[in-house]
Amino acid sequence: MQRDIEVKLLRALVAVVDNGGFSRAAQALHVTQPTVSQQIQRLESVVQSPLLERTNRPLRLTSAGRELVAHARRVLLLNSEVLGVLSALRGQEVLRLGYSVHCVARLQCMLAKFATERPELRLDIMTGLSAALADKLARDEVEAAVLLGVSTPRCEMLGRLRLAWFGHAPAAADGTYPVAMVGGRSVLSMRMLETLATNNVRWHSAPWSADPVTVRAAVQAGLAYTALPANAQVAYPGLVPTPAEVLGPAPEPLPVYLACSPSAGELVVDAARTAARVTLKDMPLVAP
């Protein structure tokens, strides 16, 4: 049968030892002396061993008592630490923040900086395509989001993201170039399609994917071309810029917005601005 030791019984034993007796332990614990005596008796019953040598004065511990006190101090310390952590979590406000999948290169840096500068806030990060994040904003599923090329009723433009072509894949037998894009409602993919048409580029679609990491991996492997932030090779050294004569001029810059839900308060908006500035710090943004 499982036997469990109550924390308050361990606390009573440590108080008896630290205060040199039952009477002073009772005063320290703000209980009566008989209560302390009963707690020690219950503790001895649980561990099935005497803990104090009651025939001697001053008070002395048995060998079992000395062993248990050492463990009891660690248990009491851990108990305090757990309660402290949970109390701190209860005191934190949660900021649900969305990020376009094309704006996450410095997300790890932002999280570390935010934890240091804004410990009162706990970030709940969601990444995805901007159109899908805009829908979540409208439903109050996130308080704020950094969106690429998608505006909302409550947003501010942070700048325009310069783009560039990347890739070094050979043309197919029919002279078309393989181009990889993120599927779904990707604004970047739509801008790529417009640009390829404007540049009169003959191309064919490499497999579409909902995951931009898969698209980037295909480009790094020399299987396709795609458009990414103009300095993407800094974060991902395997990317090779495409010569201008292959696909023509790069797509026009796309606006980057900080969008907020209808119910977001000013404190939330200010925290979201801070997070956005850190995350976008090294991205090739031009003024709105």
Overview of the structural elements:
- This protein has 288 residues and is α/β, with parallel strands linked by helices.
- The chain has three domains: 7-90, Winged helix-like DNA-binding domain superfamily/Winged helix DNA-binding domain (Arc Repressor Mutant, subunit A), CATH 1.10.10.10; 92-161 and 254-286, 3-Layer(aba) Sandwich (D-Maltodextrin-Binding Protein, domain 2), CATH 3.40.190; 163-247, Periplasmic binding protein-like II (D-Maltodextrin-Binding Protein, domain 2, 3-Layer(aba) Sandwich).
- It contains eleven helices and twelve strands.
- The protein has helices at residues 7-19, 22-29, 33-47, 63-91, 107-117, 130-138, 187-198, 212-220, 232-235, 244-247, 266-279; strands at 52-53, 60-61, 93-100, 121-128, 144-148, 155-161, 163-166, 177-179, 203-205, 226-229, 254-260, 285-286.
- Strand 3, helix 5 (107-117) and strand 4 form a beta-alpha-beta unit.
- Helix 1 (7-19) crosses helix 2 (22-29).
- It is elongated.
Short descriptors:
19% strand, 288 residues, D-Maltodextrin-Binding Protein, domain 2, 12 strands, 3 domains, two-stranded antiparallel sheet, six-stranded mixed beta sheet, Arc Repressor Mutant, subunit A, single chain, alpha/beta
Quick one: overall form?
elongated
Summed up, the domain count is 3
* Fraction in beta strands: 15-25%
Strand adjacency order, main sheet: 4-3-5-11-6-12
Summarize the amount of helix as a percent range. 40-55%
Task: Give a nutshell description of this structure.
This protein is of the alpha/beta class.
